[in-house]
């Protein structure tokens, strides 16, 4: 079964002024589409691998043939990471989480401000391209960073929240000011979806 580019749940301009329209058009319609196209190309003739969900494919990446493993990491990771990324954002969102997710963040990171600062710090310290993540690892929340399009699934972690710090995610509006982009990004975080991912991760369903 071929992987497909997911539709956005909102218009390309819906995240303005925090994420600009042209960035969304290029990021979703070109970058993500290229990951999907190249993932399907890498899976040609690999019926067993092609039948797996993208999450399972990444969890079992070490079982993939050496000849295509890096292509699957680059493009499968890019597809999984971006599919989640679009869902984590919404117009008129932002603010702070509530309920069990908020309680878990407070218990782990002292308060929301400290949590937010640590996610931003992980994003700032990622040299070159990559992601800053909130994951569930060993049933505990943890902030990690990955290079390029590597996925937390590859190391047995469940991604709950992730922010893209590739230059193509922010350079048209923010140029080299990654910190400004990271600070603005919190204004579009869809905490309802993050909370759902948190609950699913705790239940072992993510």
Task: Walk me through what this model shows.
It is a single chain. The chain has two domains: 21-87, Fe,Mn superoxide dismutase (SOD) domain (Helix Hairpins, Orthogonal Bundle), CATH 1.10.287.990; 99-202, Iron/manganese superoxide dismutase, C-terminal domain (minor pseudopilin epsh fold, 3-Layer(bab) Sandwich), CATH 3.55.40. Helices cover 50% and strands 11% of the residues. A hairpin with a 2-residue loop joins strand 1 and strand 2 (140-147). By secondary structure, it is mostly helical. A three-stranded antiparallel sheet has the order 2-1-3, with helices on both faces. It has helices spanning 21-42, 47-50, 54-59, 66-87, 99-109, 112-125, 171-174, 178-185, 191-202, and strands at residues 130-137, 140-147, 158-164.
CATH class of the largest domain: Alpha Beta
Helix content: 40-55%
Major sheet summary line: 3 strands, antiparallel
Q: List SSEs in N-to-C order.
A: HHHHHHEEEHHH
- Give the helix tally: 9
- What are the segments in which pLDDT stays under 50 over at least 5 consecutive residues? none
Rough shape? globular
Any guess at the CATH architecture of the largest domain? Answer: 3-Layer(bab) Sandwich
CATH topology of the largest domain: minor pseudopilin epsh fold
- Count of DSSP strands: 3
Radius of gyration: 17 Å
Oligomer: single chain
Q: Between the first and last Cα atoms, what is the distance in angstroms?
A: 21 Å
CATH superfamily of the largest domain: Iron/manganese superoxide dismutase, C-terminal domain
Structural class: mainly alpha
């Amino acid at each position: 079964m071929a992987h497909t580019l997911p539709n956005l749940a909102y218009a390309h301009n819906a995240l303005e002024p925090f994420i600009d329209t042209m960035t969304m058009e290029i990021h979703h319609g070109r970058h993500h589409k290229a990951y999907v196209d190249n993932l399907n190309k890498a899976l040609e003739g690999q019926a067993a691998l092609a039948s797996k969900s993208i999450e399972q494919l990444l969890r079992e990446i070490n079982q993939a043939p050496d000849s295509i493993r890096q292509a699957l990491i680059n493009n499968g990771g890019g597809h999984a990471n971006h599919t989640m990324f679009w869902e984590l954002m919404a117009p008129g969102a932002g603010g702070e989480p509530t309920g069990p997710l908020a309680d878990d963040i407070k218990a782990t990171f002292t308060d929301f401000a400290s949590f937010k600062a640590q996610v931003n710090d992980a994003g700032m310290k990622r040299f070159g391209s990559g992601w800053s993540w909130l994951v569930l690892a060993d049933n505990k929340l943890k902030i990690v960073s990955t290079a390029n399009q590597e996925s937390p699934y590859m190391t047995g972690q469940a991604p709950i929240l992730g922010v893209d710090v590739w230059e193509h995610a922010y350079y048209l509006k923010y140029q080299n000011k990654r910190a400004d982009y990271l600070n603005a990004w919190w204004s579009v975080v869809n905490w309802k979806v993050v909370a759902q991912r948190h609950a699913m991760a705790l239940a072992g369903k993510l």
